[in-house]
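Summary for the lay section of the report: proteins are chains of building blocks that fold into shapes. Here we show the chain for Penicillin-binding protein and then a coded description of the shape we predicted for it.
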Amino acid sequence: MFIFFGGLFLLLFGRMLSIQITGEAEGKQLAMMAQAQYAREAVLQAERGKIVDRNGEVIASDTLSYRLIAVLSEKATEKGAKKPRHVVDYDKTAELLSRYIPIEKEKIASIMYKAKENNSKVYQTEFGKAGRDINHETMLAIKEAADKEGVTGLQFIEDKKRFYPNGNFASYLIGFAMREENKEKKVSTVGKMGLEKTFNEQLTGTNGKMDFQTDIWGYILPKTEKQIVPAKDGMTIQLTLDKTIQNFVEDAMNQVDEKYSPAKMLVVVANPKTGEIYAMSQRPSFHPGTREGLTENWLNDAVENTIEPGSTMKMFTLAAAIEEGKWDPFAEYQSGQYTIYDKTIRDVKRGGWGRISFLEGFQRSSNVSMAYLLERMGDRTFIEYLKGFGFGERVGIDLPHEAPGILLDINPSERLTTSYGQGSTVTPLQMIQAATAIANDGKMMKPYVIDRIIDPNTEETVENHEPEERKSPISKETAKQVREILASTVTSEVGTGRKFALTGYSVGGKTGTAEIPNTNGHGYMSGDGNYLYSFLGMAPIDDPQLLTYVLVQQPKLEIGQYGADPVAQLFTSIMESSLKYMNIVPENTETSSAISITDYVGKEASDGMEELEQQGFKPVLIGEGGEVSSQYPTAGTKLSKGSIVLLETRGKTTLPNFSGWSKKMVLSFKMLSGLDIRLVGDGYVTEQSLTEGTVINADEPVVLQFQSPQSKMKPSEKEDETEIIGG
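The coded shape description reads as follows.
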């Protein structure tokens, strides 16, 4: 026995010595086996990049969601446990879940039964799309119901979901992203449409990881080092869009949609000085989060679709004639009809208005006046001007799949119909670009929607877009003269644009009534209302700050209504609200009350406050007083009496009464003060969470409730309009 146990001991000792020296057992590295046993890796989820407006307000971002898992393995429940940790009753579980997730109870039960039948060792299963993107409230409701009804084995894993807080908001521009599973069975958020798809690579972050060691029960071992590779969030895409102006557009379109039920609508609002797009929307539209309302059309109509613009094109024919020195507003022509070779064109009023001046002809939107202008300047010269305005080629906007449009230039009749907007095709974006040359004193600006791209991990701007001037075919003098004539279409008793007058602001623009090509490619639609009605306008006309293009296709009109009615409702509502929001002084304000404010930076705040009050302004102090470090608006800005002026100093800020403030003014106050001001709604402030006079720190939140202003429609007299091309 002694020899036996002694030999066994020597054998074990030799084996232990061998393992210690070689580090191997049965040809396997023990250190690596131990490392594999105790090493753990946690994935640090990166967030998809945000899409924000020009002021940093969120349009699209990631938010917390949950993924549902049903644990099927009995091994999940320890022996002697009072409550099972796996699903015990598949049918009962399926019945409960069917009340909270969009899938039938039979299907839920089938998923669990099949998973168990196909693999008896399966540990858990999921429920596809129906079991993902579950919000916090639903997760809590399922847990509560499961506890109450004795359903076990359900678990939730934190996940990410794309969140669109504004609902139907520039949907065809923003697009949408959704969670999907790749070939490796990994789930990630992928852009499927719009900017979400175009900038998917930039928006997609890179997951990080954390390596650490645990014991066999999963607890982190003491004195072990964690090796962390941080996640890198996706880029932030900052747009030129202004959320407030975009909401004015969405609200106005909703009202017109409800009243007139048109087949299509489109609105683009731009800054003619820079080419920045402030708003872009179309109808039908959809909710990017739920895709509710999404049709088979996935195109951004402002960029990817072309139209025959109708009489809005006449403003560019007019500009070409003026630039060529062929415009004589008081010269007369015979209105009614014009024949070239075998083609006869007619005015809206088929019999015409007799011999009238070219100015009156433009105000009445006479097609025949365009024909005589082409005679004067030459139709080939005219086509070269249109090319100079950018028609017939892509604008080059930072959006995909832009259509170039087609300028018909084969024969004289095609050039003639193009002069009043029929035959040749354009994109709404081309119309905006061309109109900037008229609104911006002859300087044509390239439209763009991406302001900059920011790396949120470093706060550095990795891509910055600046205004880009294009070569313009017209001079400053021509642009000014065209604006004056466009204004006369609104103010003249015979003008087609009378419905588009604004309260407090002079406006100029051109109406359009274009035929719609048949879907079979032959001829045009016929019948009442089967037209594309439009208006391309700018205001204030002396120095336009906004340029807006409105299109309404096939509205349902009642007796006494005209195609210009829904277009005018859209245009006037959007422009009046937007100009007020931008603090553009109304032109009916007395000259004496519009004053240029002084530069108060570096001066004593108390002196500035007193001087501003004496001038009739409402000064608001940010900080405790002393030397003014900055102000808003800046020195030289003309303001009407009663306007708010912000003066920034050092120290804690006393809250003012925000009632009636515009969102732009609140955002300026927020930026200068550094306070945590949270904005709810759009329009003007109606409520605030903390009262006037409260002294607060930067970490105390203040919630301001906004309400959109009601649309002010200017009543107009009924007009004798005829639904014929040319309006």
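Put simply, here is one thing we learned. The chain has four domains: 2-40, 42-234, 243-581, 595-707.
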